[in-house]
UniProtKB/TrEMBL annotation:
The keyword Signal applies. This is DUF6089 domain-containing protein. Residues 1-19 form the signal peptide. Keywords: Signal. It comes from the Bacteria. It comes from Subsaximicrobium wynnwilliamsii. Residues 4-228 form the DUF6089 domain.
Length: 229
């Protein structure tokens, strides 16, 4: 993560042209998992998540956005409302590094070069990929490392609100669900050829995870010309 953040900073401080403005900053908050192990609450952070964000504001209403987020994912059947899961009593603890890219849309104009306080809700979506370790539950219910890593591709769906708190800093709060095209994050479906013997749960339903937290970005660059957008 340290090298990724330094790379973003290097790009950010390259001299900018006269037709854009940039933001670089951090995300800090929590994560929760929705799958075949643990509780199924939609927004219930139970582990840490943090990372870096870079934005290229193309107009007062939309921005290109890239983020790198490292997070723990935890699930405990004992925290579930499903009595069958409570009785099973499985638990897992995994971590992932997510890279996400897409577009952020604001509900109202968010031109940082005009004076005054600005507050706007926003939506973000695009594509994400998360590197994670693979585990499975053996015949005794023991959480076992497969010693292999996989990429889980997904679609981020983020709703947030942000405001400029100074001339150069923007504070935001967001909740972002990630629908993945994988069912391997919680160990319910092994990655190896022996998956049929140890798979459980709803194998037709893929995993979700949710990030909830704050963003703080620093804005810089020349006054933009939005006339072409």
């Amino acid at each position: 993560m340290r090298y990724l953040f330094l790379f973003i900073l290097t790009i950010a401080f390259v001299p900018s042209s006269h037709s854009q403005i940039y933001e670089v900053g951090v995300f800090a908050g929590g994560s929760n998992f929705i799958g075949d192990v643990g509780a199924t609450d939609y927004i219930s952070p139970n582990a840490a998540a943090f990372g870096a964000i870079f934005k290229w504001n193309r107009s007062p209403r939309h921005s290109w956005r890239i983020s790198f987020i490292y997070a723990d994912l935890e699930g405990m059947d004992s925290k579930s409302d499903d009595p069958r899961r409570v009785q099973r009593d499985y638990s897992f603890d995994n971590s992932l590094l997510e890279i996400s890219a897409g577009m952020e849309f604001t509900f109202f104009d968010f031109d940082l070069h005009t004076p005054g306080l600005k507050v706007t809700p926003y939506l973000y979506s695009g594509i994400s990929t998360a590197l994670h370790s693979n585990y499975y539950f053996d015949g005794n219910g023991k959480y076992t490392d497969e010693n292999v890593k996989s990429w889980a591709y997904g679609i981020p769906m983020v709703l947030g609100v942000k405001s400029n708190i100074t001339n150069h800093f923007v504070l935001g709060f967001e909740v972002g669900a990630r629908y993945t095209f994988s069912d391997e994050l919680d160990g319910s479906v092994p990655d190896g050829d022996f998956r049929e013997n140890f798979s459980f749960g709803n194998t037709n339903s893929n995993d979700w995870y949710v990030f909830t937290g704050f963003t703080l970005t620093y804005t810089f660059g020349q006054r933009p010309c939005y006339c072409n957008f």
